[in-house]
Amino acid sequence: MGERIMTSVDPALAAVDQAQASWPDWTELERTIARAAFDAAHDRALCSLINEVQLQAALVDSAGSLWQLHDYLSIQRHRLEGRFDFRPQAILFLFASLVKDNLLDLSELEGLADGKLSKIRAMAQF
Amino acid sequence: MGERIMTSVDPALAAVDQAQASWPDWTELERTIARAAFDAAHDRALCSLINEVQLQAALVDSAGSLWQLHDYLSIQRHRLEGRFDFRPQAILFLFASLVKDNLLDLSELEGLADGKLSKIRAMAQF
Questions:
Q1: Shortest CA gap A77–chain B (Å)
Q2: Quick one: which of A21, A70, B23, B108 has the fewest CB in 10 Å?
């Protein structure tokens, strides 16, 4: 039987290495800034949805309006869960769309490299 | 080519005949009573669901509780729409379950034949 070579790796260091590998063009500081901006925008989108649902729910007075609330909630849940995807491949597009929708201010992204910021700024114009 | 025999039938009479054919053991008066009881119980179930949804919606303060409301609404909509099926094959079972759930009172079914009423009463005990 062949000999199995055991290697020992510090799990914390491995996690950092892995994050670095999947976010190759991002510094650790940039990732932290991105995560905070992402979370803030997600909270705003969620708050706005909760407000809308509470408003609609208070006005429900028939099967029709109840099922309309359900349909609305189904679509918005699908949209919110699909939209907020924290992966480097899509994050610049997401930030641009969030800036466009007033869910994020460009100032919250300060600290990202100029190249990233100017891409986000340019795309937010579309 | 064979000759086609055309028959002329009063559409209103045809509709009555059709209803009678699909509800063979029910008089027209019994069908009217059944429909009124069905509608009343449906309205009560709906009102109770609307109250519960409004109560839950007012307390939503997180993604977790919002999706919980959505899940609840999905299940209850499916249940309500599936349960209220106005067909003679299932109507006695439905009435029995509605009586059991306090969504219908036996007195609202007065006018149905004794045989039907005693079946409903007996099943509502289970």
A1: 8
A2: A21
B66 Cβ contact partners less than 8 Å away, ≥ 6 residues apart: A46, A49, A50, A53, A73, A77, B60
Contact between B96 and B123 under an 8 Å Cβ cutoff? The reply is yes
| Residue B69 with chain A: CB contacts under 8 Å | 53, 73
How high is the pLDDT of residue B16? 64
Would you call A69 and B70 a contact, using CB atoms and an 8 Å cutoff? no
Q: What is the pLDDT of residues B90-122, one digit of tens each?
A: 999 999 999 999 999 999 999 999 999 999 999
Say what the pTM is.
Answer: 0.79
Q: What is the pLDDT of residue B17?
A: 65
Least confident of A3-7, A36-40, A97-101, B118-122: A3-7
Separation of alpha carbons B104 and B36, rounded Å: 11
- The ipTM (two decimal places) reads 0.78
Considering only the beta carbons, identify the residue of A60, A62, A77 that sits closest to B53. Answer: A60
Q: With CB atoms and an 8 Å threshold, state whether B70 touches A73.
A: yes
The helix-helix angle for A63-83 and B28-59 (nearest 10°) equals: 40
Name B77's Cβ contacts closer than 8 Å, sequence gap at least 6. Answer: A66, A67, A70
CA pair distance A77, A98, nearest whole angstrom: 17
> What residues in A contact B67, CB-CB < 8 Å?
77
pLDDT tens-place string over residues B71-81: 999 999 999 99
